[in-house]
Amino acid sequence: MAETTKATGKLAELTTGPYPSFVKEIEAAAENNKMAQDLIGLLELSYNEKLCHWKHGGIVGVMGYGGGVIGRYCDEPEKFPNVSHFHTLRVNQPAGWFYKTEALRKICDMWEVRGSSIFNIHGSTGDIVLLGTTTPQLEPVFNDLTKMGFDLGGSGSVLRTPSCCVGPARCEWAMYDTLKCAYEQTMAFQDELHRPYFPYKFKFKFSGCPNDCVASIARSDMSFIGTWKDDIQIDKDKVLWYAEEKKLDIQNVVVDRCPTKCMAWDGKELHIDNRNCSRCMHCINVMHLALKPGKERGCTILLGAKAPILEGAQMSSVLIPFMKMEPPYNEDEPSYEDLPELIDAIWELWGEEGKNRERVGEFIQRIGMSNFLDAIGLEPVAEMVKHPRENPYVFYELGDDEDEGEEE
Amino acid sequence: MSAPEFDGVIIKGINIMADKALVEQIADAMYKMIKDAAGQKQYKAMDLQKAMRELFPGKADKKICREAIKILITSERCIYTYFGGSYIELPHVEGAANPTKEG
Ligand code: HEM
Ligand code: HEM
Ligand code: SF4
Ligand code: SF4
User: Residue A368 has what pLDDT?
Assistant: First the structure.
C-alpha cells in the first residue's frame, strides 16, 4: 500500500470549507504517522462505498481495568494494515479541563509514537479521547500516562468519568464549586469507575448554574446544576441604565421571554415574582450587570438523562430540588454530606433490580417514580413533577401501604 | 506489567484480610460458574454476586464479592469484556481481532 498523505475524492471535499477540518488534521498527522496514512485510505473507501469498515472489539483493555479502552478493528486489514487495530482510549481529564502546556505536550509526544497521533479534546464524555492504537501498545500507553499523572476514564458498564464546567475557576455564575465536586466524586468512586458493576453506564455531570455548560441535563444520568433559593438580586439603577443608555427593550427581550412569565416591567422598575421563577438564568444572562442570582446557593440534583439506545432520548428530572453544597449545613435540608448515601441508595437499587443495559432513567420509568422514591427513601415533593398530568382520571389509593416496600 | 499480589486491604472499614480465605473461596466458585457457562452464557458482576449470595448465604456481601472479582481479574484467570454491556469471562482471543505486525 502506497503512503497516502492527501485525501482525494469525497473526503478531500471536507478540506475545502471555511470550518476546521478533521481531514486536514489527519493529513497533517499522516506526514509522520503510518496509522494516519491508512486512516485516510480507509475513510476514502468508506466515503466512496458508503459503508463502515470498522468492527467492534469487546475484549481489549489494560490489566485490572474493565473500562477506558474501546476496542476497534478494521475489516480490511490486508489493504490497510496500519489501522488493522484502531483502539480508542479515554483519559480522565482534570476537573474543568485545565492543563499546563507541558502536560499536553507530553501526551502529544507519547501519542505520536504509540498511536495514530490523532486525539480529541474534549468530547461529550469529557475525557481526552486518544484515537487509534494497537493492542500491544495499550499497556505501554497506560504506563506512560500513569507516569504523567493521568489515569484512564470510564467506558462500558461503569461510572463514566465525572465531568464539570469551569465553574468558580473562571465563571461568576458558579453557584457551587463544580471542580471540587467532580474531583471528589472521581476520587471517591475509583472502583466504580474502573470495574464494571452496573447494569449499564452511569454518568455524573456538574454545572455551576442553570446555563448548564456541560449539558448535564441531557447528557448525564445524575445531573448537578447550580441554583439559588432566595430572590434574584436587582440593581435598580443598572436596570434603568440598560433601558436608557443601552436601549435594551426590556419588555421584549427579557420580560416576554421569561419562561414562567413571572416578571413585569413598567418602564421604570422591574418586578420579579420569585416564587414563580424557575431559575432559568435568562434574565440574568441578558442583564448581567443589573441582575444577579440570590445569595442562598446550592444545587439541584436531577436524574435520568440518556441518549436514545434502548428507549428514546430523555432529559433528567428533579430528584433533590436543593442541596446545600458547603457548610454551614442545616439539619432539615439535604447537604453535600448526604450525597454519598444518596448515590449509594440509587446504585444499590438499580444494581440489584436494573435489567442488563437499562439506564437508571429507563429503570425509573419501568418501576415508576413513586416506587423508586420509596425504595431509596425519599419523600415525593412538588418539584419532582416533570409535567402536569394530561389524564383527567385521577385515582387515589386509600389502603395502607405499610406492608409494601419491606424488602430485605 | 505483572499481576499484583493480593495482600488484603481495608475497604470502607471492613478488614478483607480477615476474610481472605472466604474471598478466595468465593473467587473459586465464581470462576467455576464462569467456566461452566463459557461459550453459552455471559455473566455480569451483579449476576455473579447474586449467585454467590445463594451459595454462601449471609456471607457473600457486596464488598467481598467485589474483592473476589478483583482477584479473578488481577490473577488473569478472567477478563472484563464488552459486548453492549460489560461482562466477566475467561480470557479468549476475540473473533474480531486482526493480527498486528507487533504481535
Ligand atoms: C475505529 C473506528 C471508530 C469507531 C468504531 C468509533 C466509535 C466510537 C464510539 C463507540 C464512541 C463513543 C460514543 C459514546 O460515548 O457514546 C466514539 C466517540 C467518538 N469518536 Fe469514534 N470511533 C471510531 C473512530 C473515530 C475516528 C477516526 C474519529 C475522528 C478522527 C472519531 C471521533 C470520535 C469522537 C470525537 C468521539 C466523541 C468522544 C467523546 O465524546 O468522548 N472516532 N466513537
Ligand atoms: C459545518 C460544519 C460543522 C458544524 C455546523 C458543526 C457544529 C457542531 C455543533 C453545534 C456542535 C455541538 C457543540 C456543543 O454544543 O457542544 C459540534 C460538536 C462537535 N463537532 Fe462539529 N460542526 C461542524 C463540523 C465539524 C467537523 C468537520 C468536525 C471534525 C473535525 C467536528 C467535530 C466536532 C466534535 C468532536 C464535536 C464535539 C462532540 C461532542 O460533544 O462529543 N465538527 N459541532
Ligand atoms: S454552567 Fe454556569 S457556572 Fe458553569 S461555566 Fe456555564 S455559566 Fe458558568
Ligand atoms: S431566571 Fe428565568 S424564570 Fe427566573 S425571572 Fe429570570 S427569566 Fe424568569
Answer: 93
Beta-sheet strand order (sheet of A317-323): A163-164, A204-207, A222-228, A297-303, A317-323
Domain coverage including residue A373: 163-227+298-399
Q: Which of A148, A180, A198 is the last residue of a domain?
A: A148
How many domains does the structure of chain A reveal? 3
Which triple of cell numbers denotes residue A90?
479515554
> A interface mutation test: which of B82, B89, B100, B101 has the most A CBs within 10 A?
B82
Backbone angles phi, psi at A134, to 5 degrees: -100, 165
DSSP strand pairing (A263-265 vs A69-74):
unpaired
Q: Which of B48, B80, B83 to mutate to test the interface with A (most CBs of A within 10 A)?
A: B80
User: Does the pLDDT at position A267 exceed 90?
Assistant: yes
What does residue A205 show for φ and ψ, rounded to 5 degrees?
-135, 145
Tell me the shortest Cα–Cα distance from A190 to chain B, in angstroms. 12
Mean pLDDT over each residue of chain A, to the nearest integer: 93
Structurally, chain B folds into a number of domains equal to 1
Ligand nearest the Cα of residue A231 is 4
Mean pLDDT, range B5-32, rounded to an integer: 71
Between B44, B85, B103, which is nearest A136 by CB? B103
As given in the structure block, the three cell numbers for residue A115 are 498511536
Judge: A136–B102 Cβ closer than 8 Å, yes or no. Answer: yes
CA distance A273 to A16: 52
pTM of the model: 0.83
B64 Rama class: left (phi>0) / alpha (psi -120 to 50) / beta? alpha
The verdict on a CB contact (< 8 Å) between B86 and A157 is yes
Report the b/e string of A387-403 with b at 16+ CB within 10 A: eeeeeeeeeeeeeeeee
CA distance A3 to B36: 48
Q: Which ligand is nearest to the CA of A117?
A: 1
Measured between CA atoms, the residue of chain A closest to residue B11 is A191
Tell whether A206 and A323 lie within a shared domain.
Answer: yes
pLDDT of residue B17: 55
What does the pLDDT average to over A266-291?
A: 97
Strands A204-207 and A222-228: parallel
